[in-house]
Amino acid sequence: MEKVYAVTVIFLSVSGVYSDSHSVRYYYTGVSVPLPGIPEFSIIGYLDDQLIEIYSSDLKRLIPVAAWMKECEDPEYWERMTQVSKRQEALFRHEVKTVMKRFNHTGGLHIVQVMTSCELRDGGVVSGYQQYRYDGREYMFFDTQRETYIPTMREAEITTQRWNSLDVRMGERAKYYLENTCVNRLKKLIKCGKKDLERRVRPRVKVTGRVSGDVTKLHCQVYGFHPRPVDVKWMNGEDEVHSYETTHVLPNPDGTYQIRVSADVTPKEGDSYSCYVDHSSLEEPLLVQWEPPQASHPTVVITVVAIVLILTPVIAGVILYTRKQNYLAAETADASSDL
Questions:
Q1: Which H/E stretch holds residue 130?
Q2: How far apart are CA 117 and CA 128, in angstroms?
Q3: Report field, pTM of the whole predicted structure over 0.85
Q4: What is the DSSP string of 106-118?
Q5: Residue among 185, 177, 95, 83 at smallest CA distance from 134
Q6: Cα separation of 34 and 48, whole Å?
Q7: Positive or negative: CA dihedral 261, 263, 267, 270
Q8: Of 32-46, 79-93, 162-176, where does mean pLDDT reach its minimum?
Q9: Is the predicted pLDDT of residue 93 greater than 90, yes or no?
Q10: With contact defined as beta carbons under 8 Å apart, do 220 and 204 qualify?
């Protein structure tokens, strides 16, 4: 199934925000030329970062992916939404051809993607978003405040003018969907997936450093935590280290998450570097200190190496002897069974 939604990674490079907000996102993807393992059309639904449902032109059905989704909806829902998805597939095939025409492309492999999302934040604040991409680049998006489609590339101007016209008024329908239909769906999904969403797994933290001349590269690897929102940063005593780089919060196969935050520092006398980690599973933030490596005494190193060299043949002899004894015991057992 990984191949079915591989092309959605273009949209998934969004870093986490430390809050209790929830969102539902749907990714519609169409390709101009079907490829092995990549369907011509697919719809993929996420609750926060959890894959919950999927439809593709290969599957020909909308199916639940998250285990709790099967209990969230009755069989009639999946049948009804399968028919809706099939109609969207037909419309999207036409949309792919239209967008290719706008970009003056008559053939070859091209990808059209639409992401539609709504979010429910703390205090009941609602927001919605729609983004349109062609071959990985945004060409237009929907401005919910002005109920207007905004072109970010000149090739989208014809489409946005038509959708924003008084005759079509596509923005009114999009705004209603994002702030009503989508939010109501999100509330139901939050209720159904409450047990999983409220699961709290403490993060594990590993700090390392690599010295190169006067500069030390510090790494703080935070992994195995759930839910996704987390705050990670490097500290020097009570002061935050501002010049750092961070990866996006990435999912693990077991449903937890990971992130790495790095910083280039030039340690001075009295400096004390620690990785600060705050997460909803923690009663208090973690502060994991980095310990500079201690210089090894040359005599100690030489002694350890010498001992290893001396013991190597001894260890090898023990292993060979043990294997031989096991082999003889096995032969004796076989001989006894033949009698």
A1: strand 126-134
A2: 6
A3: no
A4: -SS--EEEEEEEE
A5: 95
A6: 29
A7: negative
A8: 32-46
A9: yes
A10: no
